[in-house]
């Protein structure tokens, strides 16, 4: 199994993080969250804060474009959203994760967790090798998640009175964030 877990503390509340995550389909927010890699998101059924919601998204991981669908499997308002990949990836028991939101003093901590592989060791060894060789490398996913957290921290801390959808456009260029008009 490959497990990736990254966290960031942000000068905001878990509720503000929650509001951001459950409205990724509004105001082109998904694309603004990671302009270099995010392409689109759609809630095919339900809303992000509801169990059994089906979410479709497209994004770049490394140099490859991916199209995923997942099902929201667990929701605890203002605290936790868990998801599981759906067919065809789910046929391999491959891919699940969560967003975890916690209050940490005057800050909120957001953790993004992704796990992929297979429960059976022999199948897992092959699945992980195959994924790393032909699908996407762990380092590309780790970098992507770190960038997402960095950009989100920037937006939510810049000025908490301005909604995310109205803030300056961010361009990611060689790991340096710049404001543009």
What is the topological layout?
Layout: E1 2-10, H1 14-22, H2 29-33, E2 38-45, E3 54-61, E4 64-76, E5 80-85, E6 96-104, E7 107-116, H3 121-135, H4 138-158, E8 169-173, E9 176-180
Antiparallel strand pairs: 1-7, 2-3, 3-4, 4-5, 5-6, 6-7, 8-9
Protein described:
By secondary structure, the protein is α+β, with helices and mostly antiparallel strands. Helices cover 28% and strands 40% of the residues. It contains 4 helices and 9 strands; from the N terminus they run βααββββββααββ. The strands form 2 sheets. Strands 1-7-6-5-4-3-2 form a 7-stranded antiparallel beta sheet. It has a two-stranded antiparallel sheet with strand order 8-9. Strand 3 (54-61) and strand 4 (64-76) form a beta hairpin. The protein is globular, with a radius of gyration of 16 Å. It starts with a strand and ends with a strand.
What summary fits the major beta sheet? 7 strands, antiparallel
* Structural class determined from secondary elements: alpha+beta
Number of strands: 9
Q: Span between N and C termini?
A: 43 Å
- In sequence order, what are the helices and strands, one letter per element? EHHEEEEEEHHEE
- Indicate the proportion of strand residues: 35-45%
Number of helices: 4
Order of neighbouring strands in the sheet with most strands: 1-7-6-5-4-3-2
Radius of gyration computed on alpha carbons: 16 Å
Rounded mean pLDDT is: 84
* Overall geometric form: globular
Q: Could you name the ranges where pLDDT drops below 50 across 5 or more consecutive residues?
A: 165-181
- Percent helix: 25-40%
């Amino acid at each position: 199994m490959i497990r990736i877990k990254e966290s960031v503390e942000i000068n905001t509340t878990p509720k503000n993080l929650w509001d951001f995550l459950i409205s990724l389909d509004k105001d082109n927010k998904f694309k603004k969250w990671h302009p270099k890699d995010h392409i689109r998101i759609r809630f095919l059924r339900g809303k992000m804060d509801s169990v059994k919601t089906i979410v479709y998204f497209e994004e770049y991981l490394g140099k490859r474009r991916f199209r995923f669908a997942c099902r929201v499997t667990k929701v605890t308002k203002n605290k936790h959203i868990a998801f599981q990949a759906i067919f065809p990836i789910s046929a391999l028991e491959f891919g699940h994760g969560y967003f975890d939101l916690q209050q940490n003093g005057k800050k909120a901590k957001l953790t993004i967790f992704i796990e992929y592989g297979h429960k059976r060791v022999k199948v897992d060894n092959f699945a992980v090798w195959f994924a790393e060789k032909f699908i996407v490398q762990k380092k590309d996913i780790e970098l992507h998640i770190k960038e997402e957290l960095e950009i989100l921290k920037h937006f939510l801390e810049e000025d908490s009175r301005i909604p995310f959808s109205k803030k300056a456009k961010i361009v990611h260029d060689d790991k340096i964030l710049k404001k543009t008009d």
